[in-house]
Amino acid sequence: MIRISTIDTVRTSLGGTGKLLPVAILITCAFAAFWLFPYDLGFMTQMLIMMVFVVSFDLILGYAGIATLGHAAMYGCGAYAAGLFAIHASPDPLLGLAVGAVIGALIAFFSGLLLMRAHGLSLLMLSIAITMVLQEIASKARDVTGGADGLTGISMTPILGVFEFDFIGKTAFWYAFSVLFVILVVLRILVASPFGLALRGIKDSPSRMRAIGTPVYWRKVTAYVIGGTIAGIAGALSAQITSLVSVEAFNFALSADVMVMLILGGAGRLYGALIGTLVFMTVRHVAASIDPFNWLFVIGFMLLAVVFFLPDGLISLPRRVARMIGARR
């Protein structure tokens, strides 16, 4: 019965033309971006890494309803772990990703045991505090992490022994995209499973889920660990591709940006995280090049417009437009 249920879950999450359409669009956009913007592959690769990071936060906030401002803790630890592993153990990219994932999961597990017992403002403050402590440790452990100068000297061997990282960034782009694609497939299966449905129930009404026997605390810890694992992978990707890790990986602004990206795109949708990241980073890149000092005004106005007119995020725009057209008819 368990095997049949698992197979049905996979078919439900991946089957159907309507559900395969976003996947086809994602792959098409990747190829189009690669061919149309060959001189911006570095920027687009950073965008893909942030998409992995924001998708991990979507599982935590969008599905489980866990609002934190310390998600950069797992990202930063994953980045440092992958960088140190490449320098002192093995420069293999896939092994480095695994190390980043494990460290991100461990940080999420031990911090989650405390954080998942808190709610509201207490949860936000505790998550920020944990991230600040980790940032201070990374800053003070200069002999290990490089301190304020950052961790340098990271070099990677070819992926699978074949695909070598090049100066232009072609390999890095497809490497980051492949990781993002795999994570999206896994998360689609996860959120369509009984576990994913339980997370939605916990987000809507923890008391009711507790009343029917659901271990709410441990479900939230598990979701936090999975999100932390993916955040660690995002950090590892960043370290491997940029060959640098800085204490800024723990910065509060990074956690805040991730939340803004998710709100812009639409929480609890997975693909909303991709749209929000794309819009946020593109607007920031263009606005900052025009006015390096006041570009935050543009982001602020855009966020206000989305919150007031599209509370479900930019991903709900086609449905909202279709509804307006149908109402006029």
Automatic annotation (TrEMBL):
<feature type="transmembrane region" description="Helical">
    <location>
        <begin position="259"/>
        <end position="281"/>
    </location>
</feature>
<feature type="transmembrane region" description="Helical">
    <location>
        <begin position="121"/>
        <end position="138"/>
    </location>
</feature>
<dbReference type="Pfam" id="PF02653">
    <property type="entry name" value="BPD_transp_2"/>
</dbReference>
<feature type="transmembrane region" description="Helical">
    <location>
        <begin position="20"/>
        <end position="37"/>
    </location>
</feature>
<feature type="transmembrane region" description="Helical">
    <location>
        <begin position="95"/>
        <end position="114"/>
    </location>
</feature>
<feature type="transmembrane region" description="Helical">
    <location>
        <begin position="293"/>
        <end position="310"/>
    </location>
</feature>
<feature type="transmembrane region" description="Helical">
    <location>
        <begin position="72"/>
        <end position="89"/>
    </location>
</feature>
<feature type="transmembrane region" description="Helical">
    <location>
        <begin position="172"/>
        <end position="200"/>
    </location>
</feature>
<keyword id="KW-0472">Membrane</keyword>
<feature type="transmembrane region" description="Helical">
    <location>
        <begin position="221"/>
        <end position="239"/>
    </location>
</feature>
<keyword id="KW-0812">Transmembrane</keyword>
<dbReference type="InterPro" id="IPR043428">
    <property type="entry name" value="LivM-like"/>
</dbReference>
<dbReference type="InterPro" id="IPR001851">
    <property type="entry name" value="ABC_transp_permease"/>
</dbReference>
<keyword id="KW-1133">Transmembrane helix</keyword>
<keyword id="KW-1003">Cell membrane</keyword>
<protein>
    <submittedName>
        <fullName>Branched-chain amino acid transport system permease protein</fullName>
    </submittedName>
</protein>
<feature type="transmembrane region" description="Helical">
    <location>
        <begin position="43"/>
        <end position="65"/>
    </location>
</feature>
